[in-house]
Each structure stands twice: as C-alpha cells, then as structure tokens.
Amino acid sequence: QEQLVESGGGLALPGESLRLSCQASGFTFSRHAMSWVRQAPGKGLEWVSGLYSDGSDQFYRDSVKGRFTISRDNTKNTVYLQMHNLKPEDTALYYCKFGSTWGQGTQVTVSS
Question: Could you tell me the pLDDT band of residue 59, with boundaries at 50, 70 and 90?
Fold first, then answer.
C-alpha cells in the first residue's frame, strides 16, 4: 500500500526556518517524481515545489523561489522541503504527493 507521511511542521516566527520531511513506503520511491502542495486556511490547493525521481531538477512556485529548497534521499525513501525566511503567507497545511497519492499533511504556521 502506497503511503506518504509528512512531518516537521510547526509554529515559526517570520524569518525563521523549518524543514519538512515526507517518508514514503509501499512503492518504488526512486522511480517517481515528488511534489509538495499546500493549502492555506480557506483557500485552494497550491503547488509549491517538485523534483524528478533522481533529484536532478527542482521546480518552485515564484513566491518561494530563493527561500525553499526541495531535495530527496532515495536511500531513505524521503523527500524534504527546507523552508527559510518564512512569511505569514506560508501558513498552510503542507502535503507531499506523487501521482494521486497524498500524505495526511503537516501544518506550518508562521506568526509573530
């Protein structure tokens, strides 16, 4: 059974950093591109970042470029989202996904 489990969310002050992790199981992780998607309170889903199966290319939405870094460790079946210089508008439930498989999400709240 394909499963994704996110962790690492929490409360951060503006300007602080958090690192999200997504542990995958039940499928061949190294063969799949992975993405992070978020949903802010009262808003729709918003794609944040993605990378290829071998991690060779990374992609970001404009609002997080230069602040967020996506990476993966295929030996650990884990994808990461390092977030620096967090802003209140980054507050959201963050999901990792591949294809139609989603994790349960991890909450990131940025507030002073």
Answer: very high
